[in-house]
Design a protein that fits this description.
about 220 residues, alpha/beta, Purple Acid Phosphatase, chain A, domain 2, six-stranded mixed β-sheet, five-stranded mixed β-sheet, 4 helices, 15 strands
Length: about 220
């Protein structure tokens, strides 16, 4: 499937009338987090494709004016998209799952996790992944995450360190792809693609167009 994957930055090329010309025909939209709702909703409205997302470490709650009386309401999720966090879905031939947020670096109430807490999130995913293995012969095709794994595409400062639990996740469940954002890219020579065992790890910042296909296990 041809997928548009976005993360962390409003790109003017996509947030414009030229988006269809820029991306061409796609089958699926994925978001790795830390983008405004209005940006993702614009992409959905222009491309009209199934959309899945996870929150980044900052999350998003956007106020907007609604109704005849001009009352203000708070949006807690983007319209037209499905939250993947701790959930599994099948979209076309792809098996999808998601894990939101970053490593815990302050006392924010949401969207930050210790590695132990992330293991709890993985445990919530496990039943769906085991069901996939029984029904489809594989656990997962695409893990949509915000943060990278520990030691792969991450940074030494605490807010941008990756999850060690993601390394174990890839060893156990063998996703074909792990897509992440969180790590902003400022130089052309920075590494954005790494193969770890059976998994292709890709930093999608600020957006990538990827051809993603199911990969059967070699077991």
């Amino acid at each position: 499937m041809r997928c548009l994957v976005v993360s962390d930055k409003v790109d003017p090329v996509l947030y414009s009338a030229a988006i269809k010309h820029r991306v061409g025909d796609i089958d699926l939209i994925l978001s790795c987090g830390d983008i405004p709702f209005y940006y993702l909703e614009y992409i959905i409205s222009m491309l009209n494709k199934p959309t899945y997302y996870v929150f980044g470490n900052h999350g998003r709650e956007t106020e907007y004016q609604s109704g005849k009386h001009g009352d203000w309401m708070v949006k807690t999720e983007p319209m037209g998209a499905t939250n993947l966090h701790c959930r599994t879905f099948q979209e076309g031939p792809l098996l999808l799952a998601g894990l939101e947020g970053s490593i815990r670096y302050n006392k924010a109430p949401r969207f930050q996790y210790t590695d132990s807490e992330m293991w709890g999130n993985i445990a919530r995913l496990a039943p769906g992944l085991l069901y996939n293995r029984l029904r489809y012969g594989r656990y997962l095709d695409v893990l949509v995450a915000h943060s990278p794994p520990y030691g792969i595409h991450d940074r030494p400062d605490r807010p941008h360190q990756g999850f060690k639990s993601f390394l174990n996740f890839m060893q156990m469940f063998k996703p074909g792809y792990l897509l992440h954002g969180h790590i902003h890219i400022y130089r052309n020579n920075e590494t954005t693609y790494t193969k770890y065992q059976d998994t292709e790890i890709i930093n999608v910042y600020p957006y990538r167009i990827l051809d993603l296909e199911p990969k059967m296990l070699n077991e």
